[in-house]
Amino acid sequence: MNLILFLIIGGVAGWLAGLIMKGRGFGVLANIGIGVVGSLLGGFMFSLLGLSSHGTIGALVTATVGAVVLLWVVGVIKKKA
């Protein structure tokens, strides 16, 4: 059950990150994948900063922040290539 919730939160975070980063999205399915990876990145970044989040909303915020950062990095790399 936790895996399903993780995928749902990651998918919503990727969708939100695609909306936040106008013009930086890569389509619905790719943004969902970026959201799942971004949730891992967000958790890592928050732990480095000493921040923590609790509950579903906290997980969604963490995942969205990670997905936005990931979309930004991918956009920079894609622009240079």
From TrEMBL:
Transmembrane segments: 6-21, 28-51, 57-77
GO cellular component, one term: plasma membrane
Subcellular location: Cell membrane
Pfam families to which the protein is assigned, alphabetical: Transgly_assoc (PF04226)
Keywords: Cell membrane, Membrane, Transmembrane, Transmembrane helix
Key word Nucleus present: no
Membrane topology: Multi-pass membrane protein
Protein family per UniProt: Belongs to the UPF0410 family.
Name the record gives this protein: GlsB/YeaQ/YmgE family stress response membrane protein
